[in-house]
Amino acid sequence: MLDNSGKPISEKAITVWRWTGALGALVSGAVIVGMAWILARFHAPKWCLGMLAGIWLIEVVLGVGWVPVLRQRRWRYAIREEEIDIQRGVWSTKRTLIPMTRVQYVDVRQGPLLKRYGLASIAVFTAAAAHEIPALPADEAEQLCRLIAEWAKVADDNDA
Protein backbone atom coordinates (compact mmCIF):
# COMPACT_ATOMS: atom_id res chain seq x y z
CA MET A 1 0.00 0.00 0.00
CA LEU A 2 1.02 3.59 -0.42
CA ASP A 3 2.87 5.18 2.44
CA ASN A 4 2.53 8.67 3.88
CA SER A 5 6.01 9.73 2.90
CA GLY A 6 6.27 13.03 1.17
CA LYS A 7 5.46 16.53 2.23
CA PRO A 8 1.90 17.54 3.21
CA ILE A 9 0.21 20.62 1.83
CA SER A 10 -0.52 23.63 4.07
CA GLU A 11 -3.04 23.26 6.89
CA LYS A 12 -4.56 26.53 5.68
CA ALA A 13 -6.03 24.43 2.85
CA ILE A 14 -8.66 23.23 5.32
CA THR A 15 -9.93 26.79 5.79
CA VAL A 16 -9.93 27.48 2.03
CA TRP A 17 -11.78 24.25 1.27
CA ARG A 18 -14.26 24.95 4.07
CA TRP A 19 -15.04 28.35 2.55
CA THR A 20 -15.44 26.71 -0.86
CA GLY A 21 -17.75 24.08 0.67
CA ALA A 22 -19.76 26.76 2.47
CA LEU A 23 -20.25 28.72 -0.76
CA GLY A 24 -21.36 25.54 -2.52
CA ALA A 25 -23.72 24.77 0.35
CA LEU A 26 -25.25 28.25 0.09
CA VAL A 27 -25.95 27.72 -3.60
CA SER A 28 -27.42 24.26 -3.09
CA GLY A 29 -29.36 25.59 -0.07
CA ALA A 30 -30.96 28.21 -2.30
CA VAL A 31 -31.90 25.52 -4.81
CA ILE A 32 -33.33 23.32 -2.05
CA VAL A 33 -35.35 26.23 -0.64
CA GLY A 34 -36.76 26.80 -4.14
CA MET A 35 -37.62 23.13 -4.47
CA ALA A 36 -39.20 23.13 -1.00
CA TRP A 37 -41.30 26.16 -1.91
CA ILE A 38 -42.52 24.45 -5.09
CA LEU A 39 -43.27 21.23 -3.21
CA ALA A 40 -45.15 23.17 -0.52
CA ARG A 41 -47.24 24.93 -3.18
CA PHE A 42 -48.30 21.53 -4.52
CA HIS A 43 -49.02 20.20 -1.02
CA ALA A 44 -46.25 17.61 -1.01
CA PRO A 45 -45.92 15.45 2.11
CA LYS A 46 -43.92 16.99 4.93
CA TRP A 47 -41.43 14.12 4.85
CA CYS A 48 -40.30 15.33 1.39
CA LEU A 49 -39.41 18.71 2.88
CA GLY A 50 -37.66 17.01 5.78
CA MET A 51 -35.69 14.83 3.38
CA LEU A 52 -34.51 17.88 1.43
CA ALA A 53 -33.42 19.57 4.66
CA GLY A 54 -31.60 16.38 5.72
CA ILE A 55 -29.76 16.12 2.42
CA TRP A 56 -28.62 19.72 2.74
CA LEU A 57 -27.52 19.18 6.33
CA ILE A 58 -25.45 16.14 5.29
CA GLU A 59 -23.84 18.22 2.53
CA VAL A 60 -22.91 20.94 5.03
CA VAL A 61 -21.48 18.52 7.59
CA LEU A 62 -19.43 16.61 5.02
CA GLY A 63 -18.46 19.46 2.68
CA VAL A 64 -17.63 22.03 5.34
CA GLY A 65 -16.69 20.03 8.39
CA TRP A 66 -15.23 16.67 7.56
CA VAL A 67 -13.99 16.28 3.96
CA PRO A 68 -11.60 19.30 3.98
CA VAL A 69 -9.74 17.88 6.98
CA LEU A 70 -9.44 14.42 5.41
CA ARG A 71 -8.45 15.90 2.07
CA GLN A 72 -5.63 17.94 3.61
CA ARG A 73 -4.35 15.01 5.66
CA ARG A 74 -4.20 12.71 2.64
CA TRP A 75 -2.38 15.07 0.24
CA ARG A 76 1.34 14.35 -0.08
CA TYR A 77 3.87 15.39 -2.66
CA ALA A 78 7.57 14.93 -3.28
CA ILE A 79 9.60 16.69 -5.93
CA ARG A 80 12.78 14.91 -6.88
CA GLU A 81 15.25 15.49 -9.69
CA GLU A 82 13.87 12.53 -11.65
CA GLU A 83 10.14 12.74 -10.85
CA ILE A 84 7.21 14.41 -9.14
CA ASP A 85 5.27 12.13 -6.80
CA ILE A 86 1.69 13.18 -5.94
CA GLN A 87 -0.53 11.21 -3.55
CA ARG A 88 -4.13 12.24 -2.84
CA GLY A 89 -7.62 10.96 -2.18
CA VAL A 90 -10.29 11.07 0.51
CA TRP A 91 -12.09 7.76 -0.02
CA SER A 92 -9.46 5.98 -2.11
CA THR A 93 -5.80 6.88 -2.48
CA LYS A 94 -4.35 7.77 -5.88
CA ARG A 95 -0.67 8.12 -6.58
CA THR A 96 0.76 9.83 -9.65
CA LEU A 97 4.41 9.71 -10.66
CA ILE A 98 5.39 12.28 -13.28
CA PRO A 99 8.84 11.82 -14.83
CA MET A 100 10.67 15.14 -15.22
CA THR A 101 11.36 14.18 -18.84
CA ARG A 102 7.59 14.41 -19.48
CA VAL A 103 7.03 17.85 -17.94
CA GLN A 104 6.25 20.43 -20.62
CA TYR A 105 5.61 23.45 -18.41
CA VAL A 106 4.57 24.42 -14.91
CA ASP A 107 2.29 27.20 -13.61
CA VAL A 108 1.66 28.83 -10.26
CA ARG A 109 -2.04 29.58 -9.72
CA GLN A 110 -3.65 31.72 -7.06
CA GLY A 111 -7.36 32.48 -6.84
CA PRO A 112 -8.94 34.98 -4.45
CA LEU A 113 -9.34 32.54 -1.54
CA LEU A 114 -5.83 31.15 -1.90
CA LYS A 115 -4.44 34.67 -2.12
CA ARG A 116 -6.32 35.69 1.04
CA TYR A 117 -4.57 32.93 2.98
CA GLY A 118 -1.14 33.35 1.35
CA LEU A 119 -1.39 30.12 -0.62
CA ALA A 120 -0.87 29.11 -4.25
CA SER A 121 -1.18 25.94 -6.31
CA ILE A 122 1.29 24.45 -8.77
CA ALA A 123 -0.02 23.01 -12.04
CA VAL A 124 2.35 20.63 -13.84
CA PHE A 125 1.52 20.00 -17.50
CA THR A 126 2.54 16.98 -19.55
CA ALA A 127 1.41 16.03 -23.05
CA ALA A 128 -1.27 13.79 -21.54
CA ALA A 129 -2.66 15.76 -18.59
CA ALA A 130 -2.37 18.54 -16.06
CA HIS A 131 -1.58 17.69 -12.44
CA GLU A 132 -2.03 20.04 -9.50
CA ILE A 133 -0.43 20.37 -6.10
CA PRO A 134 -2.86 22.62 -4.21
CA ALA A 135 -2.54 24.97 -1.26
CA LEU A 136 1.17 25.52 -0.84
CA PRO A 137 2.60 28.63 0.81
CA ALA A 138 2.94 31.16 -2.04
CA ASP A 139 6.70 31.61 -1.73
CA GLU A 140 7.26 27.85 -1.60
CA ALA A 141 5.07 27.39 -4.69
CA GLU A 142 7.20 29.93 -6.59
CA GLN A 143 10.42 28.18 -5.56
CA LEU A 144 9.08 24.75 -6.48
CA CYS A 145 7.85 26.05 -9.83
CA ARG A 146 11.35 27.32 -10.66
CA LEU A 147 12.93 24.09 -9.42
CA ILE A 148 10.63 21.90 -11.52
CA ALA A 149 11.23 24.07 -14.58
CA GLU A 150 14.99 23.84 -14.05
CA TRP A 151 15.00 20.06 -13.54
CA ALA A 152 12.66 19.50 -16.47
CA LYS A 153 15.00 21.56 -18.69
CA VAL A 154 18.04 19.62 -17.45
CA ALA A 155 16.26 16.36 -18.24
CA ASP A 156 15.53 17.60 -21.78
CA ASP A 157 19.17 18.70 -22.27
CA ASN A 158 20.48 15.28 -21.15
CA ASP A 159 18.21 13.48 -23.61
CA ALA A 160 19.54 15.41 -26.60
What is the fold's blueprint, element by element?
Blueprint: E1 7-8, H1 12-41, H2 46-74, E2 76-79, E3 83-88, E4 94-99, E5 105-109, H3 112-116, E6 119-125, E7 130-137, H4 138-159
Helix pairs in contact: 1-2
Give the terminus-to-terminus CA distance: 36 Å
CA-based shape = elongated
Structural class: alpha+beta
Number of helical elements = 4
**N-to-C series of helices and strands:** EHHEEEEHEEH
Radius of gyration: 21 Å
The tally of beta strands, per DSSP, is 7
Could you estimate the helical fraction of the residues in percent? 40-55%
Q: Multimeric state of these chains?
A: single chain
Low-confidence runs:
none
What portion of the residues fall into strands of 2 or more residues? 15-25%
Mean of residue pLDDT values: 90
Largest sheet: 4 strands, antiparallel
- Which strands sit side by side, in order, in the main sheet? 1-2-3-4
Q: Outline of this structure?
A:
By secondary structure, this protein is α+β, with helices and mostly antiparallel strands. The chain is 54% helix and 24% strand.
